[in-house]
Amino acid sequence: MTEAEFDAFYASAFPRLVGQVYSFTGDHGQAQDVVQEAFVRAWDRRRDFLATEAPEAWIRTVAMRLAVSHWRRTRRWLELVRRTPPPGHAPGPGPEHVALVAALRQLPEPQRLAIVLHHLCDLSVEQVASETGAPTGTVKARLSRGRAALAKLLPATEVGAAGGNGEQEQGG
């Protein structure tokens, strides 16, 4: 089947196949998705379709199998959800966290990234340098400037939480 023949076949068969699969699934969006996926798979085999006597039947079979696979995955997921108790209520961020995030937003991006990676993600200065592509000395300078800026933006209690210990930056 040439590309033009395949395009014509697609245009004529797609609506009919969607209607058939929709009757099976009861979900029009899912029917469109699985028929489209079946046509994508058929596109890779379009040259073989010339020898195939019923390309529409092949696409319908693939689409139905995809729909059944989707249904099985959904059923397994629902069974898992039903067996798993819902998580307890997670409290929202406290006022200290909100203040820290607001203060971090005021820092230049390189300083903010260095502070977050080093103090909140617990990466060493060398790891921050590797991840950001900046020299170690630059990371140390960004951390120092970022902490100084945070000290001005946050009350003293939050600065201690964000400031960490200064010893990690001192090494070579």
Provide structural commentary:
This protein is mainly α. It has helices at 3-25, 28-43, 55-83, 95-105, 109-120, 125-132, 136-153, 156-163, 167-170.
Instruction: Describe the largest sheet.
Output: none
Termini separation (Å)? Answer: 67 Å
Summarize the amount of helix as a percent range. Answer: over 70%
Q: pLDDT under 50 segments (min length 5)? A: 158-172
Number of strands: 0
Shape: elongated
The percentage of residues in β strands lies in under 5%
Report Rg.
Answer: 29 Å
Order of helices and strands: HHHHHHHHH
Overall mean pLDDT stands at 83
Count of alpha and pi helical runs: 9
Structural class: mainly alpha
Q: Outline of this structure?
A:
The protein is mainly α and 172 residues long. It has helices spanning 3-25, 28-43, 55-83, 95-105, 109-120, 125-132, 136-153, 156-163, 167-170.
Observed structural traits:
172 residues, mainly alpha, 9 helices, 75% helix, elongated, disordered C terminus
Helix and strand topology:
Elements: H1 3-25, H2 28-43, H3 55-83, H4 95-105, H5 109-120, H6 125-132, H7 136-153, H8 156-163, H9 167-170
Helix pairs in contact: 1-2, 1-3, 2-3, 5-6, 5-7, 6-7
